[in-house]
Amino acid sequence: MKASNVTMKLHWDEVILAALKEDIPWEDVSANAVVGEGTRGHADLIAKADGVLAGLPVFCRTFELLDADVRFALHAEEGACVQAGQLLAEVTGDMRAILSGERTALNFLQRMSGIATYTREMVKLLEGSDTRLLDTRKTTPLLRSFEKYAVTVGGGGNHRFNLSDGVLLKDNHIGAAGGVRQAIERARAYAPFVRKIEIEVETLEQLDEALAAGADIVMLDNMKGELLAEAVRRARGRAQTEISGNVTRENVRMYVSLGVDYISSGALTHSAPILDLSLKHLKEV
Fold first, then answer.
1. Burial profile 133-155: b = 16 or more Cβ within 10 angstroms, e = fewer
2. Alpha carbon of 276 to those of 83, 111, 143: distances in Å?
3. Looking at domain 6-122+273-284, does it have CATH number 3.40.980.10?
């Protein structure tokens, strides 16, 4: 199989090439020392833990950028649940390219699969509700597109992708504007009419002011217990609701019965452990 996603090539190649250049500034001394130029090899991609596979296009593209003639035999699909010991793919190509690209390709694939695995676990905890799980902008610098993509593979959704994507007024925006109402009014006057206005509130007083000012979405930040339940009740039918603030797979279940529209969790991208994967059995062909 050849990775051929046009969007991926347009937006991801630059990051993959930067990662390869970081690891191979001018040559791979070890690979070049032990493998003759033009030697072809074959290696197996194997899961060393159970999880959700995400990032196969990036894994493949990493090797393609080093060897245009590399070939892949995939034995697991993107988004599949895999088990420890399972053969996921076979890579055949220039042996030097396989050795040189191995760590970079695995770093991407392990990181993205870990995020997808963590996300899938949280999505399952929300089953039976209409609440949708979203990520945040708490991502690794320059790797946001990879990490947010992995969230979608795991079954989650993307919040705004960047600061140009939408209006989200947080505590410092409110402070800079002089209050909740002023922040919403200024955003409504400035942003294109097609943009929704979301605002973060921490108290019922702020919530009431946001609803009166016509906020489209209210982010209920770090609210707990009866305060949170009352906030959701007041907003119902007047604005969409989002819960945010230290939401993890350990506590997400407690929010299921509240009837909120969205739960956003930075943990999806900043706290997901990698999924252990390995490229093994390299041999000359």
1. bbbbbebeeebbbbbbbbbebbb
2. 11, 9, 19
3. no
- Going from N- to C-terminal start, the domains of the chain cover 6-122+273-284, 123-270
- Measure Cα distances from 211 to 178, 181, 206, 214 in Å: 17, 9, 9, 5
Q: Measure Cα distances from 232 to 110, 135, 187 in Å.
A: 37, 20, 23
- Tell me the CA distances in angstroms from 204 to 27, 210, 259, one per residue in order: 60, 10, 18
123-270, CATH topology level: TIM Barrel (3.20.20)
Catalytic positions are 103, 138, 170, 200, 221
94 token code pair: 């220039």
Q: Do domains 6-122+273-284 and 123-270 have the same CATH topology?
A: no
What's the pLDDT tens digit per position in 136-167? 999 999 999 999 999 999 999 999 999 999 99
Question: For 13-27, what is the mean pLDDT?
Answer: 97
